Amino acid sequence: RWMALSPARGMGYVFAPEGGIGGILGATEASGGGGRGPGGRLRGRALGRAVAGIYGTAFFSLSMHHMASIVVPLWMVQLGASPLWIGIAIGARSALPLAFSIHGGVLMDRLGTRRVTLAVALAAMALFPIYPFMPWIAAIIALQLLFGLAQGLCWIGAQTFYGNLMRGHAGHAGRLVFFSSGGSFVGPMLIGAVIEFGGNSFGFGLLCLWALMMVLFTLLAPGDKELGLQARKPVWADLVPRAADYKSALALCLLPVVVMVMSFTFIRIGVASVQTSFYVVYLGQIEMGETLIGVLLGTANLVATITPPLIKTLARRVSIISILVGATIATTVFMAVTPLLESFAPLLVAAALYGAGVGLGFPTLLTMLSRTVGPGDQGKSVGLRTSVNRLGSLIVPVVMGAVAEYFSLAMSFAVVAAAALAGTFVTTLWVWRQPALRR
Predict the structure, then answer these.
(1) Rounded distance, CA 256 to CA 300, Å?
(2) What angle do CA 421, 422, 428 make, to 5 degrees?
(3) What DSSP letter does each residue of 254-314 carry, written as one string?
(4) Which residue, of 130, 207, 269, 325, is most buried by count of CB atoms within 10 Å of its CB?
């Protein structure tokens, strides 16, 4: 059944199938999305090119984040930066996405996903060569601000392409995660080896080439005419955020499913922020080589790539809520034990188990959000989820940096884990009190 929610505010339509969360996933698997099915009006080679473009953008967009999470902290350690300043610089890349992700998603809905994604991918490509020539804390923070926004909008673009073409299809969500995690498996290992044998400057050069590949795959992705959507020509006024857009995005939180997705997203990204900040710093402290650091991060993402097919099997035995809660607890625990481990083998096992949690949790969240929100609001909903992501990514590195500087690095891991587990408990308790989510 389709329900109109405040169409005057631009909210569009929200799909609310009978059967709660299980109904969402079941309807998604059966129909492939909001009525038209995956692919929309595209057929044959055009459809194949569009799908290749979407999966390519997923491969190269999210992985930029993980690759930069290796080279930037290691470069700052080499420059003699304190843990607090490293945390501030890592957190800075989330400040602008926190403020403008919703606006960026709305721009994609309004002006066309491919047009906006192409612009930010070109911006990311232009930023990376600047890093080695500006080795000052203030300059690094400024670059991190700009890079965070460009990379974040690239990833929003990949997800919006998926939402517009695949309409929340669970199988395609798993493949999207497969390719995004695949990029995050290959990229960190590759950049770790490049840094170890060529230095940080070559690492930034590799990121520039990575962004170029993002540009090329964006050109393959479907345009609005191919998707049956209408986009108007951009004007300068479009660059100015509108309060009404933010209100309509926040109004999506009237839906219990969206509230649940945002809560688990915040917890998940808070733990993931540990992996992309002080996890790398800790590995550097115990003198783990850059190549091995890349292997550890790559292994986590490799396991996250191959575990999504297990979701359907597990859902026959336990509830979707149980899968989300178990996955969240797993990612938290296996990241928290890191300071207790000092050799490569146990760190590899912990990384793999952490990746399994990511692979089970993220596709479920992505499918539920895409399926719940109507076709005209895909970019807006992804922007909202990315804002929640970036809030966690902004807070956690700064808090960890402060705790590490005044107490210890191990204590900072424990503080984040305790907060994540407490948040999981509260969210689970709230979900079980919502009849619509328990069905």
Answers:
(1) 31
(2) 90
(3) GSHHHHHHHHHHHHHHHHHHHHTTHHHHHHHHTT--HHHHHHHHHHHHHHHHHSTTHHHHH
(4) 207
How far lies 339's CA from each of 108, 172, 403, 409, 423, in Å?
41, 36, 14, 8, 22
Please determine, for residue 12, whether its predicted confidence score (pLDDT) is greater than 60: no
Residue type, 332: T
Residue 120 to residues 127, 129, 148, 221, 295, Cα–Cα distance (Å): 11, 16, 11, 15, 29
For residue 15, give the H/E element and its range.
strand 13-15
Summarize pLDDT for 297-354 with one digit per residue, the tens. Answer: 888 888 888 888 888 788 788 887 888 889 999 999 999 999 999 889 999 999 999 9
Tell the residue number behind the tokens 């990241």, with chain if given.
335
Residue type, 413: F
Encoded tokens for 231: 């986009």
pLDDT in tens, 209-268: 999 999 999 998 877 676 666 656 666 666 677 777 778 777 777 778 888 888 888 888
Transcribe 209-240 into DSSP letters.
HHHHHHHHHHHHS--HHHHT---PPP-GGGGS
Return the structure tokens found at 421.
């587990």
DSSP state of 232: P
Write down the pLDDT at residue 29: 43
DSSP notation for 344-372: HHHHHHHHHHHHHHHHHHHHHHHHHHHHH
Residue 48 and residue 32 in contact, taking contact as beta carbons nearer than 8 Å: no
Beta-ladder partners of 4:
13
**% of the chain surpassing 90 pLDDT:** 21
Helix orientation angle between 344-372 and 320-336, rounded to the nearest 10 degrees: 150
Residue 382 CB contacts under 8 Å (≥ 6 apart), including other chains: 105, 156, 159, 160, 163, 369
Residue appearing with tokens 């500087």: 405
Within 10 A of 240 (CB to CB), how many other CB atoms are there?
Answer: 7
